[in-house]
C-alpha cells in the first residue's frame, strides 16, 4: 500500500528542526503583529460587552473543537508512517466529527442562552458552530503538511487567514456590526485557513475505505482526546465562572487580558509543537540526542518566552494604555497576574512534547485526571474577587502544574527530568524574574507610557547582557540559543 512521503531521519534533522522553527516562528511573529493590530483597532471600536458575549459562547461550545480533532492530528503527525488510504480515512473521520460537533453545538443553543441569561447568544451560537465543520475538514491537511515538514506552507496559510480575517473584522466593526465583527473574524480565519492548506497540500481525499483500519490512530488519539478535553475545561472554566457570576462586561475585560496573554503563547507553543513533535518522535530511541533536543528546546522557552512574559507582567500598565487606551485600564492588573502564570505555561510545554513523542498519551491522561480537577478548584476559588482573583488562581494553578507534570513525565518515560527542572528554575530566578522586576521599576518613572516601555525593555536587556558577560552558565546558554537562531535562519549546520 502506498505510503505518504516523509522526511527520513538523518544527521541534518536538527538543522531541519531549527530551520523549521525559524520559518514558523518568523511567520508567527508576523501573525502576532497582525493580531496586535486587530486587537488594538477592535478594542477601540467595540465595547467590552461585545467581546464578553463572544467569549461566553466560545468558552462553552469550544470544547467541540477538541472533540472534532479527537487527537487524530497529533496521532498522524507522530506516526512513523501513514498510508494514503489511512490519510483519506482520517480526513473523512475528522470532517464527520466536525459536522457532528456543529450540529450538537447548535442544538445546545438554548442551554447556552439559559446559562448566561443572554438572549443575544441565540443567533451567535449557530454561526460559530459552523466553524467546527470547516476546522474538521482542515485537520488532516495541517497534519499532512506538518508530517512533511512543510512549515513554509503552513506559515503562508496562517498569515493569509489572519490578514483576511482582520480585514473582515475591522470592516464589520467600522460598519457598526458590534459583536458580529468578532464572529466574522473567527469564521473568516477558519475558512481561509482550509482553502490555503488544500492548495498547498495538493491532494484531495479519496473515498472512505472500510478495509483500512484506523485503530492505531484512535488508540493514540483517544487518550490524547481525554487530556485535551480536561485541558480545555481547565483553560475555560475561568471564562464560564466570570461570565455566569459577573456578566459580559467583566468577562470582556478578562478576555482581553487573556487574549493578550495567549496571543504570544499560541504564536510560540503551537508552531513549536508542529516542529518539535515530528522531530522528537523520530529520535526518541536515541537517548542522548533526545535529551539534547529537549534541553535546547527548554532553553529557548525559558530565555525567550518565559522572560518575555516576565517583562510583559512588569510593563502591563503602560502596555495596556498604549494598546487599548484609558477606558480599558482595568485590563492591566488582570494581564499582569495572568502573565506570571504564562511563564509556567510556557515552560510546561516541554512535558507535553515528551508525553506525545514517547507515545505516553495514556499516562498523560491519568496525570490529568489527578492534577486538572485540582487546578480547576484553584482557579474557580478566585471568582469572588472578580477578574483579578480568577487570574491569580490561574497563575498559581499553572505554577504547581509545571512541577507536577515534569516530575510525572520523567517517571513514566524513564528520562531524567531533574536537570531540566533545575536548569529552568535557575533561568527563571536569575534571568526572567530580575528582568520582570526591572521592567516594573521603569513604570514608576514620571514619563509617558511609551517611554516607560522603552526604558523597561532596555533595563531588562541590560541585565541579560550583564549576566552573559559575568556568569559562565548564562553565557553558555546564550551560545546555545544563538546557535539555534543561526540554524533557524539556515546559516549554520549542526555539529
TrEMBL record:
It comes from the Bacteria. InterPro entries: Poly_Biosynth_Transport. One of its GO terms (cellular component) is plasma membrane. It holds the Pfam family Polysacc_synt_3. Keywords: Cell membrane, Membrane, Transmembrane, Transmembrane helix. It is a multi-pass membrane protein. It is found in: Cell membrane. CDD domains: MATE_tuaB_like. The chain crosses the membrane at residues 91-115, 121-141, 153-181, 187-205, 300-324, 330-353, 374-392, 453-474. PANTHER family: LIPOPOLYSACCHARIDE BIOSYNTHESIS PROTEIN WZXC, PST FAMILY PREDICTED COLANIC ACID TRANSPORTER. Belongs to the polysaccharide synthase family. This is PST family polysaccharide transporter.
Amino acid at each position: 500500500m502506498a505510503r505518504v512521503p516523509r522526511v527520513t531521519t538523518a544527521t541534518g534533522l536538527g538543522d531541519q528542526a531549527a530551520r523549521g522553527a525559524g520559518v514558523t516562528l518568523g511567520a508567527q511573529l508576523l501573525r502576532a503583529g497582525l493580531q496586535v493590530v486587530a486587537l488594538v483597532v477592535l478594542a477601540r471600536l467595540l465595547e467590552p460587552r461585545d467581546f464578553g458575549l463572544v467569549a461566553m459562547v466560545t468558552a462553552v461550545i469550544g470544547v467541540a473543537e477538541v472533540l472534532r480533532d479527537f487527537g487524530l492530528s497529533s496521532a498522524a503527525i507522530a506516526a512513523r508512517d501513514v498510508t494514503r488510504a489511512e490519510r483519506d480515512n482520517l480526513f473523512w473521520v475528522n470532517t464527520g466529527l466536525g459536522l457532528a460537533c456543529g450540529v450538537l453545538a447548535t442544538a445546545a443553543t438554548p442551554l447556552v442562552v439559559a446559562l448566561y441569561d443572554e438572549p443575544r447568544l441565540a443567533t451567535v451560537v449557530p454561526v460559530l458552530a459552523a466553524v467546527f465543520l470547516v476546522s474538521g475538514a482542515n485537520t488532516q491537511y495541517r497534519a499532512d503538511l506538518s508530517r512533511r515538514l512543510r512549515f513554509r506552507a503552513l506559515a503562508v496559510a496562517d498569515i493569509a487567514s489572519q490578514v483576511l480575517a482582520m480585514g473582515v473584522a475591522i470592516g464589520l466593526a467600522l460598519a457598526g456590526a458590534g459583536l458580529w465583527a468578532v464572529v466574522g473574524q473567527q469564521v473568516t480565519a477558519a475558512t481561509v485557513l482550509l482553502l490555503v492548506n488544500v492548495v498547498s497540500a495538493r491532494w484531495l481525499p479519496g473515498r472512505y475505505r472500510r478495509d483500512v483500519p484506523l485503530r492505531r490512530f484512535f488508540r493514540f488519539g483517544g487518550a490524547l482526546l481525554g487530556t485535551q478535553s480536561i485541558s480545555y475545561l481547565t483553560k475555560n472554566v475561568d471564562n464560564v465562572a466570570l461570565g455566569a457570576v459577573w456578566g459580559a462586561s467583566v468577562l470582556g475585560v478578562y478576555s482581553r487580558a487573556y487574549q493578550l496573554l495567549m496571543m504570544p503563547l499560541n504564536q510560540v507553543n503551537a508552531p513549536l509543537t508542529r516542529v518539535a513533535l515530528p522531530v522528537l518522535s523520530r529520535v526518541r530511541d536515541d537517548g542522548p540526542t533526545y535529551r539534547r533536543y529537549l534541553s535546547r528546546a527548554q532553553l529557548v522557552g525559558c530565555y525567550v518566552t518565559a522572560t518575555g512574559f516576565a517583562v510583559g507582567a512588569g510593563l502591563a500598565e503602560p502596555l495596556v494604555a498604549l494598546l487599548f487606551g484609558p477606558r480599558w485600564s482595568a485590563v492591566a492588573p488582570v494581564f499582569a497576574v495572568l502573565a506570571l502564570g504564562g511563564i509556567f505555561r510556557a515552560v510546561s510545554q516541554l512535558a507535553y512534547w515528551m508525553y506525545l513523542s514517547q507515545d505516553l498519551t495514556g499516562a498523560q491522561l491519568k496525570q490529568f485526571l489527578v492534577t486538572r480537577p485540582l487546578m480547576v478548584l484553584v482557579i474557580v476559588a478566585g471568582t469572588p474577587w472578580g477578574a483579578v482573583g480568577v487570574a491569580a488562581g490561574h497563575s498559581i494553578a499553572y505554577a504547581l502544574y509545571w512541577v507536577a507534570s515534569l516530575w510525572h513525565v520523567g517517571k513514566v518515560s524513564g528520562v531524567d527530568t531533574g536537570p531540566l527542572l533545575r536548569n529552568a528554575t535557575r533561568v527563571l530566578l536569575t534571568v526572567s524574574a530580575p528582568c520582570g522586576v526591572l521592567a516594573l521599576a521603569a513604570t514608576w518613572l514620571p514619563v509617558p507610557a511609551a517611554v516607560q516601555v522603552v526604558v523597561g525593555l532596555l533595563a531588562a536587556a541590560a541585565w541579560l547582557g550583564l549576566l552573559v558577560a559575568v556568569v559562565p552558565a548564562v553565557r553558555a546558554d546564550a551560545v546555545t540559543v544563538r546557535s539555534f537562531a543561526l540554524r533557524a535562519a539556515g546559516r549554520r549546520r549542526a555539529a
